[in-house]
Amino acid sequence: MPWRERLRIGTGALWIISGLLMFQPLIRSPLFFTDVLAPVAEAWQPFVIRALLRTGDRLWLTAPHLWPLLIGVGEVLSGIGLLWHPTKWGWLTRLSAWILVLWSIVVWVMGEGFGSLFNGTGSVLDGTPGNALLYGICTALLLIPIDFWDSGQVAHRVRQAVGWIWIMMAGLQALPGAGFWHGSRLAELFGLVTMNGAEPAWLQQWINEGVMWSFHDPALVNLLLVIIMLGLGLAWLVNWRYAPLATTLWVLWIWMIPQAFGALMTHLAPTVGMIGPWLLLIGLARHDRKSLRQSSPAAKPTIA
After folding, report:
1. Domain around 43
2. Which of 206, 211, 205 lies closest to 190, judged by CA?
């Protein structure tokens, strides 16, 4: 199956799941606002971004019971539109993709505060560069003309982008002003927010180990985080053989421990988290890596 089709099916499924998660009862409760929406607006955001976030918060509070239902229905229907037969109903696939891309931008700006990219405290362990951005990228790729897919340009650019994203994440993690070189701030990334009793005991134990380790040895832990992400970025750029596997394991670890399985167990998560779109992007980038290896000229035998 061509990777464009895999991406279309995977992205459509992610949007449908996201829409279904919006029907969780707790998302219509005040907890969703106090625990999910409001903290983003107060996280040391620049003035303009904070104003946008508070505008989104006020809009949500106008109908907190209605918005989840409307959003859920919209995401499910648009996700189904992506999954519909792309040959006979190509216009529906494109329309659904455009709707979801625009919706991703709205959520990324007014719900996630640009994924905390501009407040100086963003970390991939805490969700940066934003789930909505990753969902939007996967969806936007479906709008690229088929010729660019057939030529391999899309997969090649995605592989490069994955590398640079991880280098950027390493840079954000290393910023002195972010506070990650100090125990209290770094410990927050390892679960002080997610440890609310909703997780099973074994997961809370793992999270607590991360909290204690990062609190007592913040410089060492943060240095390891920076080195890992910088190494992953360079691995993709130089087309290292094990870059896809290493990145997959790293993303899984982040999603499972610091993010507590995307906070799904709290019943307040509006998506499955970063894991879905990241796996799709890694798979697409891996396809380019394999194509480059197959197209590289074989070593010529030495003639005595």
Report:
1. 3-289
2. 211
243 belongs to a structural domain: yes
Cα atoms in the 13 Å half-sphere on the side-chain side of 99? 19
Structure confidence at residue 302 (pLDDT):
38
Residue 134 lies in a domain: yes
The helices-and-strands tally (H runs, E runs) of the chain is 14, 0
Residue at 211 is within a domain: yes
- Residue 70: both structure tokens together: 């409307």
Q: CA-CA distance, 113 to 297, in Å (whole number)?
A: 46
Reported as half-sphere exposure (CB side, CA atoms, 13 A), residue 21 has a value of: 19
- Number of separate domains in the chain: 1
**287, pLDDT greater than 90:** no
In 24-89, alpha helices (H): 30-32, 38-41, 47-62, 67-83
Q: Give the Cα separation of 296 and 304 in Å (integer).
A: 24
Is 283 in contact with 159 (CB distance < 8 Å)?
A: no
Sign of torsion, CA 207 209 210 211?
A: positive
Mean pLDDT score of the chain, rounded to an integer?
90
Average pLDDT of 115-132?
A: 93
Question: Residue 42 above 80 pLDDT?
Answer: no
Evaluate if pTM is beyond 0.85. yes
Residue 295 domain-assigned?
no
Give every CB contact of residue 75 below 8 A, 6+ residues apart in sequence.
15, 16, 18, 19, 22, 100, 103
